[in-house]
Specification:
530 residues, 8-stranded antiparallel beta sheet, 8-stranded antiparallel β-barrel, disordered N terminus
Length: 530
Amino acid sequence: MSGFIHRRALLASGAAVGLAAAVARPAWAQATDPLADLDGLVHAFMAEFGTPGVALAVVRPGQPDLTRGWGVRKLGAPEPVGPDTLFAVASNTKAMTAAALAILVDEGKLAWDEPVVRRLPDFAMYDPATTAAMTVRDLLTHRSGLPLGAGDLMIWPTTTHTRAEVVHGLRFLEPVRGFRTGYDYDNVLYVAAGQLIERVTGTSWESFVTERVLRPAGMAQAVPAPSLVRTADISARHARLGGPVYGMGEMRVVERQETDSFAPAGGVQAGARDMAAWLRIQLNRGLGPDGKSVWSEIQSAEMWTPQTLIGTSAGPTSDEPGRSLFATYALGWQVFDWRGERVVAHGGAMNGQLTATAMIPGRGVGIAVLTNAEEVGVQNGLRNALLDRMMGAPAFDWVAYYRNRGQTRRATALATLKATDTGKPVGGPTAPLARYAGLYRDPWYGDLEIRRDGEGLRVAFLKTPAFRGPLEPWGPDAFRTRFADPTVEDAVLTFAVKRGRPVEVTAKAFSPLADFSYDFQHLRFKRVGA
């Protein structure tokens, strides 16, 4: 991740970074029964962070599953969140794609360490040596050498790119580090994993995951992609808008931005009851609710075995009791230590909704937190509080912790904005505006169209409907976009002009706080034709 504070960094899951938290002990933090006064716990988080609705799943040995909802599905509407209300579990889907591959490994149709090109001959990375060496395992472990979020504009926001186009685009994405030399989170290789499943099985990723993973696990209501939702019991999405940057201001309803091409990396829609079933089959090492093996215990161990080091720290302190000594990535799961015990977990961040899953395998405990707002304090705070309760750890006020953390990060974000806001740059177009008009093409993204619009120019990223609008001159041969949708990030486009003719366009996000999935910086459009 760059030195800038990305929007998703403000929301990201994981250990916190050196903030002192208030340690007053409200009544709900004193509970000896892990699930005592759960209403008080959930309401404390919802009230502090303004989240309209929350659903939880908690599974424990010898106890009935807890699956409950609190609050409403949509601001201003009365319909409540219940145990079957669907949420976008986002990147928690990655573990389900990994499970689908594990089933194929069990059946001898794949091997974790066989080259991807053996099954997907049209698969290619930028470096031919990486193409030849990339294994099925490598698709899932974020160690490809690609930069953070590379290629995400092929799947985010709403786009017309197909999965086949996403996989084809991989060969044009330049690495920033050596193959298998470090961790950089990606989504596009999980899309490739979905294509691999389709090629091996002869059926769609959606069908295979539904018939071989979701339903055998007992996830009766879950669907693998947004377009397959057929119920009205689905949560709306909410984010803070109207402030100086996305994520600040009033809580408002926002529209879904992902499309089905994204599904193998983050498409599953599920409720608390579904997620309880998912946690159960994980903790039971692949045994479904009928006692039949969906995947083997060997593959369960494989999926939980660390593959890539994410980071290390000095460990917990009084201010950060949950800080991990190590964090790793396995196959669709993060594995880290929490108060001295192994935790297997993942987070999910989609516009307007944040989710988290966590398991303590040594205790047979699983937790899922589903929220309908972009407020990390609820997603991670509830997860952390419930982990502590299940471990019998000393009470800690996670509401205050994330309140303090949020205040610090907002202040840092505003300071970053102030430091980088130098106003409109000096300079402007060096060629007549008519000469900028034309078609430009990036090899992995596709086409960008610039056309005259009255006295000015207008841009259209042809694969992304939301990326259309007027251009404003913004320095020498540069223009900033003015997209109409306030929930997508604007960009600055810079033209290379040779002998009075624009021939190339590069880009960067306008806001220094833009989410890493707005990877404008990886684009290089070259002019097509005259």
